[in-house]
Amino acid sequence: MDAGFSRHAAALLSDIEANGLLKTEREMSGPQGGRITVRGREMINLCANNYLGLANHPVVRRAAAEALETHGFGMASVRFICGTQDLHRELERAIARYLGKDDAILFAACFDANGAVFETLLGPEDAVISDALNHASIIDGIRLSKARRFRYATGDMDELETRLREADAEGCRFKMIVTDGVFSMDGHVARLAEICSLAERHGALVAVDDCHATGHLGEKGRGTPALTGTGQRVDIVTGTLGKTLGGAMGGFIAASQPIVDVLRQRARPYLFSNSLAPPVAAGSLAAIALAEAGDDLRRTLMRNTQRFRAGLAAAGFSLLPGETPIIPVMLGEAVTAQRMARALDARGVYVAGFFYPVVPHGKARIRTQMSAALTEADIDAAITAFVEAGRDEGVI
Ligand SMILES: *Cc1c(COP(=O)(O)O)cnc(C)c1O
């Protein structure tokens, strides 16, 4: 190895560290949950995507353990060679039925689903029109496609319409609007009703990445199309099995039959990457059933969300408004967010500070996420810790 490159990498790292942007990983020694064990210490966890608390649910664990015995550990094949079990097709059908689509296709992650959807479905004569705040995997997926690229400021419907007109003026064949269902850094919901109306007026397809919604938002947890009453007006839903739906891993695209069939023939992350492990497929199937029947879990999640939001607001913290279980506590500079995160860690509350480049300069925050796995006592203890840490750090 060239020593010059090692020096280059070391210099990059010192730069990152000098700018206060170094990310470190804290090791947990037990399962994911409302309370986790970090270096022997039990902490209240406010930053997992474990919205319904299914990541360590006994029914999900049992389904995965049974599949391990009946279907084995791994597939050692892509789907079309010898990597499709009954479990994979059952899971695809369950996702499709849950989201009200004809069919669904599995990927190793939603990152791969978003890497597949644009490149496979759109050509150089087409257009993709993307919200500026969309997830990194959508941005990368768009980079992989040859479609013409248009971008609109987040939630700006006037600009979206302008971009649709521009795409028409350039003679684009098909147009696809793509948006996160819930924007994960801010926790707000996309304006899907308006987006669908614009799409219908201009003859565009609508694709929604519903990673932060499927399972816990909308009627029966069917996500932002259900929440916003847009249902079937959304053509394509991409999603993850790595958040609410068990939290293991895996992604999917749910859509009409011809769209899914084309993806199965042509999507590179599907054709050239291994099948989901059988225990993951079986555990995810169990998680979908729990999510669909989980009105009680969704009520607990929303109760926790309201309780935590009200407690922090009453204490004088600056919160972004919203109705999702993502509650960003705005702190301004990166150093303030880091100091708050440390002060909360010392008080047994596990959070993560977010700062540039994940969010804009001066908009550093601690993004808290609620879970049905948290108890009222956990929520109240977390509020107390925020108030004490906030006073110590001069934030409130
Ligand atoms: C988490 C997330 C992804 C990535 O999902 P994985 O299955 O973990 O790859 C993609 N898009 C959005 C909006 C996400 O929040």
TrEMBL record:
Entry annotated with the keyword Acyltransferase? yes
Record Pfam families: Aminotran_1_2
Modified sites of kind N6-(pyridoxal phosphate)lysine? 243
User: Which residues are noted in the entry as substrate-binding?
Assistant: 135, 367
Say which enzyme class the record assigns: transferase
Q: In which pathway does it act?
A: Amino-acid degradation; L-threonine degradation via oxydo-reductase pathway; glycine from L-threonine: step 2/2
Give the quaternary structure: Homodimer.
Similarity remark: Belongs to the class-II pyridoxal-phosphate-dependent aminotransferase family.
Annotated function: Catalyzes the cleavage of 2-amino-3-ketobutyrate to glycine and acetyl-CoA.
Identification of the protein by name:
2-amino-3-ketobutyrate coenzyme A ligase
Q: Which organism is it from?
A: Alsobacter ponti
